Amino acid sequence: MKLIKSIAVATVFTAASTAAQAEDLVFLTGSQGGTWFPMGAAMSSQITERQPDLSIQVRPGASLSNVVAVETGQAQLALGSSISTVDAINGVGSFDTAVTNVCNIAKLYQFIVQAVAVDMEMDSLADFEGRAMSVNPRGNASEVTAQMVLGTFGVTYDDLSKVNFASMSDQANMMKDGQVDGFIQTTTVPAGVVMDIAASRDVKLLPIPEENVAQLTAQNAGFRPYVIPAGSYPFQEEDIPTAAFGTHIMTGCDQNEELIYNITKDLAETMSEVAVAVAALKNVDVAQMAEDIGVPLHPGAERYYREVGVLQ
């Protein structure tokens, strides 16, 4: 079954083979060096502490391929972006075929699109034409978003002098070493990877104006305007307009209702502890977890949210 266009998903799952029992779960997150991997580890730690009969293998992943892994049963839990999962359910964008076995457990926090340059002569994303850029590996929502954002400025990968597909940590090293002029990431604010680069290089955030965000929203309704407040980074003196979309945790719709009910309950009741490791979650409460993102709730998650009164 071919679900994703031009993405070799098999390699993502070599280490993350199908869990044989419900008590032995695979949890796909994001690339090492990003926010998702430690977030998944922190969540898994809280869940297994409360449910010692569960074993959760936390693995690297990517937003698009994580959806396929859940759909095909190769992962029982996964992190994803709302824009990618909605595309998958509708069988559009990067997906040839609509998925039918992907359900939402909880909305988490917003992804903020951050265009960062170390070439201080750049003032616009249009200035990437003829310059070098790094992006996340193909199959990652950040990489897809980078293409979409560049497109609103009339720039494609073909217009760049070079494009490197790499993990966040490798991209940071490329920026520090001057191998690339900048990147587009979708992550939290402030982003550790940006702070890391700024510790050794002059950097600047490039704006995504309202008219460009409108173009993104026309392509995928999950995008929203966002402003990175001045002072979010030590080098940032002005507000920077950009775009944002949601992140969430998903599971197979066919997963055991009681299992997902208990996982949802554990996440809701320990979110403040998880937020100690992942600051992006510090303001996430059970009402936000239950918000509609265009992905059907798993019956176990829905039952929990109704019990605590955040769903009617």
What report would you give on this structure?
The structure is a single chain. The chain is α/β, with parallel strands linked by helices and 312 residues long. The chain folds into 2 domains: 10-108 and 248-307, D-Maltodextrin-Binding Protein, domain 2 (3-Layer(aba) Sandwich); 111-245, D-Maltodextrin-Binding Protein, domain 2 (3-Layer(aba) Sandwich), CATH 3.40.190.10. The protein is 34% helix and 21% strand. Strands 1, 2, 3, 4, 5, 6, 7, 8, 9 and 10 form a 10-stranded mixed sheet that branches. Helix 1 (36-50) crosses helix 8 (257-277) and helix 5 runs parallel beside helix 6. The chain starts with 23 loop residues before the first strand and ends in a 5-residue tail after the last helix. It comes from Roseovarius gaetbuli. Residues 1-22 form the signal peptide. This is NMT1/THI5 like protein. Keywords: Signal.
